[in-house]
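Hi P.,

Sorry for the delay on this. The queue was packed all week, but I finally got your sequence through. Input first:
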Amino acid sequence: MRGQYSQGWMQGKEEKAYREEKGVDTNSSVETFAAVKFYVDNWRWQGVPFYVRTGKFLKEKTTLITIQFKEGPKYAFPPEASETWRSNRLTISIQPEMDIRLRFQAKRPGQTMSLNPVNMVFSYHDTFHEPQPEAYETLLLDAMMGNPTQYMRSDQVEIAWKVIEPILDAWEKRPPDNFPNYAPGSWGPEDAEALIAKDGRTWITLPPNGKGH
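Then the structure:
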């Protein structure tokens, strides 16, 4: 599904709608948000959904990769332990916090079998105290030095566009009739929540300042 932001308030500041921006057509159907569910059609990832969302003027500027592990076919704990059970999860935070956190279950102290999710966190900032360059600083320096290590290869770029272009072509042929459909400072259109909710899942965000469970 797709979206375009409207006029609204964000962090105490009034923001224009996309269609009110300078140089933008007042009837523009350009997307400023997209949420997509992908599948990788091979034996390793068969049946595993990949949910992706991205957009402008969202609640936070953040980049996360979250891997949620499936429950095993056998449950080794007594029924009372399942009341607080949460799926194990690996979260790689790229920006603004640079960390990797593994969420797993730990038994609470006491005689009852009660499990709570806890985080094991590696924080780049807490481990390495030297100032870090901005992402584009690193990429621009690599470009000037002729170092392609952190760049996508041309065949990777071509395959990425091969995946995305059919979506863009379909959207171009079917202009949206509900733009704008989300406010600045939100997490996007309600349809994006429905996209993942119908599978019994939710979008995952980190707690404020990346702390907590």
